[in-house]
């Protein structure tokens, strides 16, 4: 008996059957924008279909140029384009999967001057003011959606997903916030819904009865002036009557100031919203957001919140997610830890989307781990992210690998990261690698700090010895009140009620969150909702209420020498969340600091030429890191081929994305 009877059971839609209850949610990878990249995109989808995904939803394709997210972005408007799409649909079908095209009209989120919307109101996250559509213009947009769906059918897609959430055009028609019209398309909730409902109707007419129409419905807008719950329910019922096959859940507009998918959002944080809608409709509903492991997905289905689950990033992290769940190998799943570092942050920088824990994502045709023709005996020193990715990928290719780790546990700095409130998911990567080491047959030596002399007899040596905290030269740095982030987070050394944090990079910000957290576990859903002001949409339109964060148990000062904003180097999609969290905990952020000295009175600094004493009990140093690579010279002198990776190679601007990517790429070539 499968532990996931709901998740893995087929779903009969009447005219077609999905092989399980898993929908791979839409993600724009960057490969959609040019047909020249379709062969790579085809392999990316095919790998996920072979891995068992029931229904794949593509990245968004605009139904016309006004709907483009960016100039020359993906669109489907001609038969010639539809023919190109056959390259994508055929391999998915060969692998037994199904695929739907997402039709996305950006509306006022379009990053170009052609943008249109219900009313001419600029989005707070976009410099382009949209043109308000005329009555004729609205009808043209509806036709464009229907044509796009008909072309999708021509291209071999099993259906379409209509993007009706996240604050895109359809959502802009639905909410009073963005729809100030007084004609047939605005003025009352009924009239604001008409655009969405007409689109579904026209698509059903044009694409036929045996075509899946998923409507992605914004159940929680999370913006002021969002939809009331009764309007959300009415929309779902009208969309069903208009011919939708499935309703998918959308949570939060892009301009919302509530995080909806980053790692500090508790798992399955929004399935209750889908569960609240489900009794009001007769068609299957899909739940989504922060579902990343089979048990979480199964629970959402077995407790009756939904009929299907949507997961997007988990399939970047592991294309074999379903197969592993089916065969009782869930401990082998490479879990998406919701860091956004290589997926959404790349998308915002217009870089190809990939995955921090799986650098092959989006590079399936170029980064392959083919079996080696000549097996070598390889030593990998250091079991942080860099060493773990190298060792396991080398072993997968057939090399004989020994992995040496000074600590008594694998993980390196990830072992510290996972202790930060809201970063608990990082433990999953350590669990994944622990299992992967066993499965691939890497010989692991824990508690073994190697010297150059221990490494004779290997064909190759990979040094993944990582980094050590930098100790700034500052009078009083050896004062007993000074601790490193390792002392505080890893070793749990006691910290006073007034604390100064030196260094406001990623680690300084994390440590400040660690120090200001107390009370409820970080991933407690009620506490998280109170912190971010999320509530039942029946209580407040859009599900947004006043924030009530738990107070910090101590006063924290977060300092840096640069004048730039604190956390400005953090990822686009997570940096603002960290900044808002620090503000809520009243962390005093001071930039342009000169450190003078530390003594019994506290930390003496100068800011804008004025001396200031921070009367603190503890100073925590998070001043960056230095590479640990003292073995390299001795090994080279002994004539051994040495490869430096991760922090041991370059400590500046190191993150786990670079460490894992570099390790995997080295392993692919040895
Ligand atoms: P390390 O993780 O430093 O691993 C090196 C390993 O080598 C260690 O386990 C060490 O014990 C071992 N070693 C050293 N010398 C020897 C020897 N002679 N013999 C045997 N073993 C040896 N990165 C992100 O990308 N995103 C984040 O959100 C993030 N958050 C972080 C939060 C915190 C609090 C911290 C501390 C780090 C965070 N990082 C984050 C950084 C990330 O953890 C590092 O970039 C990454 O761990 C570097 O990997 P590495 O393998 O190069 O080195
Ligand atoms: P970092 O981002 O380089 O930050 C180091 C901080 O120390 C900076 O604020 C720097 O600012 C300060 N500093 C540097 N030298 C100093 C000195 N001699 N004296 C006093 N202050 C000094 O490094 P990190 O915070 O250690 O993080 C390491 C890596 O882990 C980062 O590159 C980051 O990518 C990764 N990480 C990422 C995340 C994430 O959420 N994505 C989270 C944690 C860590 P000033 O020079 O202006 O003072
Ligand atoms: Fe998940 Fe991070 Fe990979 Fe994105 S980069 S898929 S968030 S693990």
UniProtKB/TrEMBL annotation:
Its cofactor is [4Fe-4S] cluster; FMN. Keywords: Flavoprotein, FMN, Iron, Iron-sulfur, Metal-binding, Oxidoreductase. The keyword DNA-binding does not apply. Residues 377-650 form the FAD/NAD(P)-binding domain. Transmembrane segments: none annotated. One of its GO terms (molecular function) is iron-sulfur cluster binding. Gene3D superfamilies: Aldolase class I, FAD/NAD(P)-binding domain, NAD(P)-binding Rossmann-like Domain. Residues 7-332 form the NADH:flavin oxidoreductase/NADH oxidase N-terminal domain. In the N-terminal section; belongs to the NADH:flavin oxidoreductase/NADH oxidase family. PANTHER family: 2,4-DIENOYL-COA REDUCTASE (PTHR42917), 2,4-DIENOYL-COA REDUCTASE [(2E)-ENOYL-COA-PRODUCING] (PTHR42917:SF2). This is NADPH-dependent 2,4-dienoyl-CoA reductase. It comes from Amycolatopsis camponoti.
């Amino acid at each position: 008996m499968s532990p996931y009877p709901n998740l893995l059971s087929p779903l009969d839609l009447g005219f077609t059957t999905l092989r399980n209850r898993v929908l791979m949610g839409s993600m724009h990878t960057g490969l959609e924008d040019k047909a020249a990249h379709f062969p790579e995109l085809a392999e990316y989808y095919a790998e996920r279909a072979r891995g068992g995904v029931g229904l794949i939803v593509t990245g968004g394709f605009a139904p016309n140029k006004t709907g483009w997210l960016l100039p020359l972005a993906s669109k489907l408007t001609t038969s010639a384009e539809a023919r190109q799409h056959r390259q994508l649909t055929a391999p998915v079908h060969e692998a037994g999967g199904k695929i739907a095209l997402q039709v996305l009209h950006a509306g006022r989120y379009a990053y170009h001057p052609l943008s249109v919307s219900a009313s001419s109101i600029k989005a707070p996250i976009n410099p382009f003011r949209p043109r308000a559509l005329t009555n004729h213009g609205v009808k043209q947009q509806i036709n464009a959606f229907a044509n796009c769906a008909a072309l999708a059918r021509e291209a071999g897609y099993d259906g379409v997903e209509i993007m009706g959430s996240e604050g895109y055009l359809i959502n802009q028609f639905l909410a009073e916030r963005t729809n100030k019209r007084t004609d047939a398309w605005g003025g009352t909730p009924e009239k604001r819904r008409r655009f969405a409902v007409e689109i579904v109707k026209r698509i059903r007419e044009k694409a036929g009865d045996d075509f899946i129409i998923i409507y992605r419905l914004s159940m929680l807008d999370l913006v002021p002036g969002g939809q009331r719950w009764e309007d959300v329910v009415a929309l779902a019922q009208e969309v069903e009557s208009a011919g939708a096959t499935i309703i998918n859940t959308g949570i939060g507009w892009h301009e919302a100031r509530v995080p909806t998918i980053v790692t500090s959002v508790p798992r399955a944080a929004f399935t209750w919203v889908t569960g609240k809608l489900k009794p009001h409709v007769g068609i299957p509903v899909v739940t989504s957001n922060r579902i990343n492991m089979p048990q979480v997905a199964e629970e959402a289905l077995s407790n009756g919140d939904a009929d299907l689950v949507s997961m997007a990033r988990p399939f970047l992290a592991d294309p074999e997610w379903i197969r592993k769940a089916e065969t009782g190998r869930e401990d082998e799943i490479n879990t998406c830890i919701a860091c956004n570092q290589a997926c959404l942050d790349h998308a915002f920088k217009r870089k190809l989307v990939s995955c921090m824990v799986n650098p092959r994502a989006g590079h399936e045709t170029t980064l392959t781990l083919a079996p080696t023709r000549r097996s070598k005996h390889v030593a990998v020193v250091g079991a942080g992210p860099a060493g773990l990715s190298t060792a396991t990928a080398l072993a997968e290719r057939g090399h004989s690998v020994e992995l040496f780790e000074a600590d008594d546990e694998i993980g390196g700095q990830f072992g510290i990261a996972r202790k930060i409130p809201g970063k608990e998911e990082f433990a999953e990567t350590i669990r994944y690698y622990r299992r992967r080491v066993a499965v691939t047959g890497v010989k692991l030596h824990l508690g073994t700090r190697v010297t150059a002399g221990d490494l004779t007899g290997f064909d190759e040596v990979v040094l993944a010895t990582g980094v050590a905290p930098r100790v700034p030269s500052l009078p009083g740095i050896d004062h007993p009140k000074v601790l490193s982030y390792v002392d505080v987070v890893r070793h749990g050394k006691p910290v006073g009620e007034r604390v100064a944090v030196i260094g406001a990079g990623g680690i300084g910000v994390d440590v400040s969150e660690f120090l200001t957290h107390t009370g409820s576990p970080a991933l407690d859903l009620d506490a998280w909702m109170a912190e971010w002001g999320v509530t039942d949409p029946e209580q407040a339109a859009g599900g947004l209420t006043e924030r009530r964060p738990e107070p910090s148990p101590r006063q924290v000062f977060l300092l840096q020498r640069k004048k730039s904003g604190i956390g400005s180097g953090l990822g686009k999609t997570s940096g603002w969340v960290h900044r808002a969290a620090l503000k809520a905990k009243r962390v005093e952020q001071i930039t342009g600091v000169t450190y003078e000295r530390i003594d019994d009175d506290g930390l003496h600094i100068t800011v804008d030429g004025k001396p200031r004493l921070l009367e603190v009990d503890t100073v925590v140093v998070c001043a960056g890191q230095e590479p640990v690579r003292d073995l390299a010279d001795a090994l080279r002198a002994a004539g051994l081929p040495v490869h430096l990776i991760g922090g041991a190679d370059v400590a500046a601007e190191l993150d786990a994305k670079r460490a894992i990517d570099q390790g995997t790429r080295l392993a692919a070539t040895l």
